[in-house]
Automatic annotation (TrEMBL):
PANTHER family on file: (7AS)-7A-METHYL-1,5-DIOXO-2,3,5,6,7,7A-HEXAHYDRO-1H-INDENE-CARBOXYL-COA HYDROLASE, ENOYL-COA HYDRATASE-RELATED
Record carries keyword Ribonucleoprotein: no
Transmembrane intervals: none
Keywords: Lipid metabolism, Lyase
One Pfam family of this chain: ECH_1
UniProt key word tRNA-binding: no
CDD domains to which the protein is assigned, alphabetical: crotonase-like
Name the UniProt record assigns to this protein: Enoyl-CoA hydratase family protein
Length: 244
């Protein structure tokens, strides 16, 4: 599900591959967090490329796992797993370059919003369909990708934005044909890896330190409303209606 390697120039590649849509279960989110933490802890690693195989980058959490659960254990698990994975992207001591193709939804927005650099295929779309699933969360991260009012409109309507739109907002660095996506991400990462690693690690830490708000705390605040919707039965009703 999660594979990791490091090339001769010090770029770690972390690949998510969980067909059919790269929706991750509880264990998958924690495994992703562990892979990022391991890469960042390796002094030989100078940058990370995070990408996925398949039709799309990430479809969020595994809704089937949540629906099959007999209690709220899976909900708590996936909430903590997502928080851990998003935090691992943000806290990784070296820059994280994400390569996005196809759909990037829900948890995929959490990954991208906390990443340092986004390279996208020309077929990539970004969205938060959480309200259609009776959930909330990752508006924290969407607000790092699009302007405030665009974020609100996307959240309320489940509308998506294209890679070209995000490039115009400045959150996507470059848009390339899908066949060139991996190479484009590595070109950026290798450019970072060529710099002095001590300076780059200091730059990452300093940039996190001047963020106007803490995305980890902000995201956990959002998750409280997802718990509320589940405890009151609203989430089950919305998911059942959506699935009809």
């Amino acid at each position: 599900m999660i594979e990791a390697s490091v090339d001769e120039l010090g770029v770690a590649e972390i690949v998510v591959n969980n067909p059919p849509v790269n929706a991750l279960p509880v264990k998958g989110w924690f495994d992703l967090a562990a892979a990022l933490q391991s890469a960042g802890a390796d002094p030989a690693v100078r940058a990370v490329v995070l990408r996925a195989e398949g039709r799309g980058f990430n479809a969020g959490v595994d809704i089937k796992e949540l629906q099959a659960a007999k209690d709220f254990g899976a909900l708590v698990g996936v909430s903590r797993g997502c928080a851990a994975a998003f935090a691992a992207v943000y806290d990784c001591p070296v820059p994280v370059v994400v390569a996005v193709q196809g759909f990037c939804l829900g948890g995929g927005i959490g990954i991208c919003g906390n990443a340092d650099i986004i390279v996208a295929a020309d077929d990539a779309t970004f969205g938060l369909p959480e309200v259609d699933r009776g959930a909330l969360g990752a508006a924290t991260h969407l607000a790092r990708l699009v302007p405030q009012h665009k974020m609100r409109a996307m959240m309320y309507t489940s509308a998506t934005a294209t890679a070209a739109e995000l490039q115009a907002f400045g959150s996507v660095l470059t848009v390339v044909p899908r066949a060139e996506l991996r190479a484009a991400a590595f070109e950026v990462a290798h450019g970072i890896a060529a710099k002095d690693p001590a300076v780059i690690r200091a730059a990452k830490e300093s940039l996190n330190g001047i963020d106007p708000w803490d995305p980890k705390r902000s995201y956990r605040y959002e998750q409280g409303y997802t718990y509320e919707l589940n405890l009151t039965g609203v989430a089950d009703r919305v998911r059942d209606e959506f699935g009809r």
